[in-house]
Automatic annotation (TrEMBL):
One Pfam family, short name: CarbopepD_reg_2
SUPFAM superfamilies cross-referenced by the UniProt entry: Carboxypeptidase regulatory domain-like, Porins
Record organism: Chitinophaga eiseniae
Taxonomic path: Bacteria, Pseudomonadati, Bacteroidota, Chitinophagia, Chitinophagales
Keyword Transmembrane: yes
One cellular component term from this protein's GO annotations in UniProt: cell outer membrane
Protein name: TonB-dependent Receptor Plug Domain
Any GO BP: siderophore transmembrane transport
Amino acid sequence: MFKVLLSTIICLMGFIHLAHAQITVSGNVRNADTKEVVPAVSVTMKEAPNGDYTNDQGNFRFSAKKQYPVTLIFSSLGFETKEVTVTGAGALKVELTPVSVLGREVVVSASRFTQKKIESPVTIERISTKEIINSPQPSYFNMIQGLKGVDVTTSSLTFTTITTRGFNTSGNTNFTQIVDGMDNQAPGLNFPLGTAIGLTELDVDNLEVLSGASSALYGSRGLNGTLVMTGKDPFKYQGLSAQITQGVNHVSKGRSNDPFGPSPYYDWTIRWAKKVNDKFAFKINMQYIQAKEWMATDTTNTNGPGGPLTDPNYNGVNRYGSKTSVDINPFLQAALAQTPELAPIIDPLLEKGSNYVARTGYPEYGYLSNDAKLLKANVELRYKIRPQLEAIISGTFGKGNAVYSNDTRYALTNFQLGQYRAELKAEHWFLRGYTTRENSGNTIIASPTAQLINEAWKPSFNPATGDGWYPQYTGALLEAMAGGKSYTDAGNIARAFADQGRPDASSPLFQHLKDSISSLPTSKGGTLFLDKSKLYNVEGQYNFTHLVKFAELIAGLNYRLYRLDSKGTLFPDNDGPIDVAEYSAYVHATKKVLKEKLSLSAAFRYDKNTLFEKPRITTRASAVAEVNRESFIRFSYQNAYSFPSNIQALQSTPVDYNSFASGGSSRLLNGVYQFDRYPAYTLESVAKYQQSNNPADLQQFTLSDIKPQSVDAFELGYSSLIAKRVLIDVLGYYATWKNFIGYVNVANTPGTDDPTAFKDHSTYMAYNIAYNGAEKVNTYGYAASVAVEMSRNFMAKVNFSSDFLKNRNNSQVNNFNTPNYKFNIDFGNTGFGNKERFAFSTTFRYRPGYFYQIGFGSGNVPASSVIDAQISYRLLQAHCRIKLGGTNITNVYYRNGFGSPAIGAMYYVSFAYNVF
């Protein structure tokens, strides 16, 4: 009996051992054509959750509680999926066959779940890491400007703003930018931060751009589109990678007023990722960029025709300090009273009307810092609690210098941005929390700082002494005219006289004045921002598809808190931070019908902002019909909205100082007008006059509470893959904007109902106000793209897009700022020659001239034709790549925004190790 029992126990233990036996599979994966190792290949076990990715040497290894035989599935974009049966222990050697990627790309941002790009219900553009490697652009972010329908404004070398379908401007708050699930916006200013705290060059897995309205899934401010950036998973992309780019820009001193000679460009990037074991992996990223800025040098006179030698009221677009402008008639009248014999000279001047004269301005070069610097660092830890449950902790920090354009040029020096995340991610759900923190550093507000420098050196008028710049100018003007000089020549003589001793921008006195003014907060009469605003965000999403079966269904919740903390320099928060909260909930469902030939989807979103009484409901409905296996027709209706940004709703910032006897000054004052909560915003109610282009034509302006703006957009598109080699996409859209938020200049003249009091520079307060236009604004356009994958790894792409604005509200600055059409052409090869060591790519971007509006002026942006190119060579055994390239290689300077810098050529050589 004992023997029987013992035998039974031994057999049972053996059975239990077999049932829980653990096997280990390992091997190496290579390209079947070139015999190179293939990293980042997904290796999964069929009908099991276990798997791995090949590392930078092409190796994989993982364990599973299974018994032989098992089947492994090898998959990677650009290669045929392969199944291999493993019957026993031993390292495998697997070769994958390269295939075309056209029509096979998958996206997640269009519907928040994975689907083929060609089957997307809305227009979406995608950039992969392989395309970044082969691009002539030294920065992945600049590749976006070559996508279909995308516009950019380059304010400086390290600050580029993107948008789609019009309304393009620096610091666009109506375009959402998501980085690894986090909204990449400045908490106070609300516009996306570009690459300031985005991904480093070597850590980009892919970029996806949704054109047009996208609020239903991504919330407020998604009116012009959304950019979703995804970083590389350290479990998938492993190893040490480094890239050093050395270049030169400003190669033609004097061209397009470029004040520099040839200047070095440095971009050093490093990434280290390691899978410590099957459960834990980490990555560390760092990137440093340093160069001389592109400088804004537009000398166009914003006050009318004429230049600095022909117009006494000259105010150049990129001349700072000359915004101070005074009608000198009071000084002429005072001179006439004191010296009646000058009547033959003074009377004709008074009879012709006003005689405005501007103070002398400083050019941007020598005034604003020309040192572009950007340091980014990122650390991410990942731990797999279970094969399908992962914990992620990450931190990203950015610091540097940048310049952006808005109501003037803003030079951000030593700004700091941090973004920190904790996330749980499972197969069907995620829970994510993150915070964004900004420190504006030392900010120079170009126009008011220069105006105050002029005033600190010599006041425009000192009532106590009767002296000042304008009295001196007027006296010298009359003296020169009495000597027989013309009004224009006499004005130049008078300016030289009044400017005697004026400090040059390179002088110690100028630097002292600039430092003292820019280090004093705006709330105390200086121009320093003290912005340390923060953003806190918690969100979760669940995919119910495996439970409901009948449809793909996802739902999510989001809570966001802005803690505005500017010490009174941006917002009325002298008494403490202002909290603005947003609550959101969304649901998205997709159902395939008609034998799965028609895909119907709908999304609904609820949002509430504590600054506004009413919540917003937004929707999206779409239909995608399969014409055949590789052709699809899509139709969508999308409603999007934007709560006014924190800047539009709450800003109170000095912009232009006119410190003459009349006591006038200007502020940015934007929109909620909740005067009971923020008494600093109280305006006198007696007279509010709207400025027009003609100062003599002033109209009464009626204040009202600002409201969220919205857009209803319809899109019809068609995508088709022909013969597996040609991918085409065409679309048309039409959108209606309601409560469109624009800007207007308004003057408040206390104690009088006479609009001429403002016109004649009596005591007044001027404001630049964000408000809702009454008229509906319509936009429409169309676009098309063709991509052709030819033999021997050659690829050609061309895209064309067109955007139009109807019912422009001319009482607003509406910033449509896009040409009626534009196109891009790409041609390249990802590998040719012996073992496909060589590669090249070229791009051509054309933009016709177009009208551009921004806070400090408006005018035409000239047409531009830009060619970028690169050629590279791979050292296969060393895992290295050498790239020689250039952007704007013809060196014909161009601008993509009014008042923005002129961009010339940059030529570079890049050395990359282990970049894949």
